[in-house]
Design brief:
heterodimer, B: 5 strands, 35% helix, globular
Chain lengths: 222, 202
């Protein structure tokens, strides 16, 4: 998995955003990815929270490498991740209450996102701190990207709008950001329901694979 | 071997202790802010469910907890009491509609001393987005249909969705949700008529 030259930051970013993208390639953390991507703002919010958790947990795990006994490392990762998430949850509840209401039960669910545990085990535990942090940013951004694409698509198709409830994330200055393309009644409800999430993600993965194939063929023919 | 396992256990234990310490510190640091926000949100919600200028006390602090099947839950439910110069002037009853499409729908129901409904708000629900969640004021005005309704001027058969012969709109593709809310509000309003004196008896 980490057979790549880890000293190369560009490589790390490319991996996170594209070639090993957690949402499109590794298919990690599908539960929150599918459950919370019903609107663009929900997607962005969960993506940011996951990104933050991933960077913090990767950094801590990387700092602690060598100190954690091999046999009990997984419970320790879980402890570290759970602590990080709890702190983020409390801070959100205290100072971003609107966001807390809309993310609700999904914030604690970040604990169970195997993407975070996966990166701790596969990357952070055996790489220098700086690389682990960059990997956290890259993987987190990759996850955020898929959430944004899926959330945006589902919101447009399902309810004909974009950026509803942006005030939950950006405060009252975002009250007017709401865009409406067509009346909500004409939305395709399927997109908002769980099957729509699976279909949407499937289409995104297919599109990614298509682009990869095209890139390969252009490279070969040139 | 034994000492190795002991060492692992100790390390695991100390990491757990450090984690707990961090969480405790965060909890203590955020507790007041969380409490203040919750209190403010509660007050903002309650203010719409009492008749304007009808009270002089702070209903969010004048509460009583009651358990009654009419409130839709086995656990005690909070009732916020409004008083004007000490004289009872209205109450906001928290209740649950246990028969929503996806489980419990939590409600706040404001009533004046005549038992008329001042307003109803949904505080928590798991209804289907785009179908059942129109009970939420942020999604539609449906919940305002309860404003000003009175048991004195309506009959039991009015308290149904139109599909069942009553006066409340159902939603396209979602009848169970509004039906659950209408039932719960009617149940609480009827209960309140009988229990009103007990609620304010202190």
């Amino acid at each position: 998995m980490s057979s790549v030259d880890t000293s190369n930051y560009q490589q790390l970013i490319k991996q996170g955003l594209w070639s090993e993208n957690p949402g499109m390639v590794k298919l990690l953390g599908l539960c929150p990815l599918l459950a919370v991507s019903n609107t663009l703002i929900n997607g962005i919010s969960l993506g940011l929270a996951t990104l933050l958790t991933l960077v913090v947990s990767n950094t801590i795990v990387s700092c602690a490498q060598g100190m954690l006994p091999q046999a009990v490392r997984i419970p320790m990762y879980v402890l570290i991740i759970a602590t990080t998430v709890t702190v983020i949850e409390l801070v959100t509840q205290a100072w971003l209450p609107d966001l807390y209401i809309s993310l609700g039960i999904f914030l604690p669910l970040i604990v169970t996102n195997c993407l975070i545990l996966g990166r701790a085990e596969a990357f952070a535990a055996r790489n220098p701190v700086r690389h682990a942090a960059i990997d956290g940013v890259a993987m987190g951004l990759g996850f955020l990207l898929v959430l944004v694409a899926l959330g945006g698509a589902r919101e447009i198709i399902g309810q004909g709008s974009l950026l509803t409830d942006s005030a939950h994330l950006f405060g009252s200055m975002a009250n007017d950001w709401h865009l409406r393309f067509f009346s909500e009644q004409h939305g395709m409800l399927l997109a908002l329901l769980p099957p729509g999430a699976f279909i949407g993600l499937g289409l995104i993965v297919a599109l990614k694979n298509k682009i990869d194939t095209m890139l390969v063929t252009t490279n070969e023919s040139s | 071997m034994k000492s190795n396992e002991l060492k692992q256990g100790l390390i695991l234990g100390s990491v757990a202790t450090i984690s707990i310490a961090i969480i405790v510190m965060t909890y203590l640091g955020t507790r007041d802010a969380i409490r203040t926000t919750e209190q403010r949100e509660l007050e903002a919600k309650l203010i719409e469910l009492f008749e304007p200028q009808s009270y002089t006390n702070q209903p969010s602090r004048d509460t009583i907890e009651l358990t009654d099947s009419a409130l839709g839950s086995q656990t005690p439910k909070i009732i916020y009491r409004a008083r004007n110069q000490g004289v009872p002037s209205g109450a906001v009853v928290s209740a649950t509609a246990p028969d929503g499409y996806n489980g419990n729908i939590d409600l706040l129901i404001g009533l004046n001393m005549d038992g008329d409904i001042v307003g109803v708000r949904v505080t928590n629900h798991m209804e289907t987005p785009g179908l059942g969640d129109d009970i939420d004021l942020s999604r539609s005005d449906w919940i305002r249909a309860f404003d000003g309704l009175s048991l004195r001027t309506t009959q039991a058969y009015d308290w149904k969705v139109k599909k069942d012969g009553g006066q409340f709109d159902q939603f396209t593709g979602a009848t169970i949700t509004p039906r659950a809310v209408v039932n719960a509000v009617y149940r609480v309003a009827s209960w309140y008529q009988i229990e009103k004196d007990n609620i304010f008896a202190n």
